[in-house]
Amino acid sequence: MSNSIISIKDLRFGYGSRLLHKGIDMEFQRGKVSAIMGGSGSGKTTILRLIGGQIKPTSGQVEVDGTIVHKQDRDGIYRLRRKMGMLFQHGALFTDLSVFENVAFPMREHTNLPENIIKDLVLLKLNAVGLRGAAYLMPPELSGGMARRVALARAIALDPDIIMYDEPFAGLDPISMAVICDLIRSLNDALGATSIIVTHDVAETFSFADYIYFVADGVVAAEGSPKQLMASKLPFVKQFIHAEKDGPVPFHYNAPSMKEDFAL
Amino acid sequence: MKTLLNFFEKIGNSVSSRTLRLGAATRLFILILIYSADSFKRIHLTIREVYFTGVMSLVIIIVSAFFVGMVLGLQGYYTLQKYGSSEAIGVLVALSLVRELGPVVTALLFAGRAGTAITAEIGLMKATEQLSAMEMMAVSPVARIIAPRFWAGVIAMPILASIFSMVGVLGGYVVAVPIIGVDEGAFWSQMQANVDFRFDIVNGLIKSVVFGIACTIIALFEGYDAPPTAEGVSRATTRTVVTSSLAILALDFVLTSFMISG
Fold it and tell me: Which of A185, A228, B56, B102 could be bridged to A224 by S-S, CB 3.0 to 4.6 A?
């Protein structure tokens, strides 16, 4: 029996006539940390949005815990989302609420817990990300790394089965980056959750992910454990991992010929 | 021929996009009504927004109303004294404010002060993915963010319009009685005798409720529909003021026509 919690089958999605995904298949195993990697604009974040039911696929399907996401009505999607936590690229903290209230938000919305229990739970979650002392700060008073950690505490507030991270390392200094890497791994293992990370940071991701998918040209170009991918001879994987300028990913964006543009 | 076709294409596109936006705004309005029950369960959210949209607009409303009332007093006296009816200045000031200027100017000021704030706030929440985050937490932004602001606008507008009319009458009084020297008894008694509660005051309140609905829904829709960029939010804020102002003036004409004929 498959141990996957999320299964993506022949997924196609596009805006207008331009297809971003041209038949993607992925399986995310329970309890594992998986990463989706690829260049900018390759549709990595869109895969997270498809898993979360924020958009519907053109064809194919995303199945979360045995439920086909795009066939659900609004209530069904909301039931699924209660099993998920998501960390947005810049945290997406509610700027009119304090750090404490941000983390308490999902608890207040979805549970009838008394205030003293909510307080204890929020402080525990903040303690897990090392920011118990920042509970009463407002989001503008936080650094980028701190905001990301608060958002992580909020994402795990209801102990979700699935935690999704959209570019968790973008714009962070090396110390904050190491802290986030460590938190992703340790929280995943402590909560028994399944984590999916969308990123293009090779070194950090290869250091702690269990399984990695490379997305390019709308399909899964390569997949495997970090060790397998390091040994891969595929030109795209080699170019990406070693940050090479030359390779299958072109330097130039599609453009008319030089002759046409410069009237030669 | 091609220029003519382009011209008609532009008109067609413009009509089509405006119709689509009107449809989307109507859809948002219906969603707000559907989610209102959810929103009323957390009444503190609506009360908080009444504070931000209503109480925080009080200064601009009171100051503007006082000056509008004073100008009405001066202009009214200047015209009325030509016909020997300067005692009717109280009626003129009160009727102008209660029937027209109170609801209309309040709505215009509300659109400029609270409407733009609502659009910018929601537009920025969208740009910084706060609305998406809420959606991903299985919390409807319409119930949590949009509906409380809508009801706050609908509640605040008639109260602000009433305050505007009251302060405006006071402004007219200050100019007419202590400064110009119109008889105080005539000022108040003529006003009391000629201002009808049902026809003047209730109709004025009805107008302000309708303007409240229009201004707030325009501000909310523009914010909710704004492209998530700095330019998108700034354009949406401008559109809020322009669309609200035009909607207020057009609705005022329609409502006045019905009220006078009915």
Answer: A228
Q: Is the pLDDT of residue A95 over 70?
A: yes
What are the pLDDT digits (tens) for B221-234? 999 999 999 999 99
Residues of A at the B interface, defined by Cβ within 8 angstroms: 52, 54, 77-79, 81-82, 84, 86, 88-90, 92-95, 105-106, 109-110, 151
Whether B129 and A110 lie within 8 Å, measured CB to CB: no
* B43 in contact with A, Cβ within 8 Å: no
> In a 3-state reduction of DSSP, which class is residue A86?
strand
Strand partners for A162:
A84, A194
Strand segments (E) across A38-182: 59-64, 67-68, 84-87, 162-166
What predicted TM-score, i.e. pTM, was given to this entire model? 0.86
Which chain B residue has its CA at the smallest distance from A155's CA? B137
DSSP state of A253: P
Cβ–Cβ gap A93/B130 under 8 Å: yes
Per-residue pLDDT tens over the stretch B166-193: 999 999 999 999 999 999 999 999 999 9
In B, minimum Cα distance to A164 occurs at B136
The predicted-structure confidence for B1-56, as pLDDT tens digits, reads as follows 788 889 999 999 999 999 999 999 999 999 999 999 888 888 999 999 999 999 99
What mean pLDDT comes out for the span B199-227? 94
Top-level class of domain A4-261: alpha beta
Domain ranges of chain A: 4-261
Angle, CA of A235, A47 and A190, to the nearest 5°: 95
CA distance B123 to B118: 8
* Dist. CA B262–CA B253, nearest whole Å: 14
Query: What ipTM did this prediction achieve?
Result: 0.83
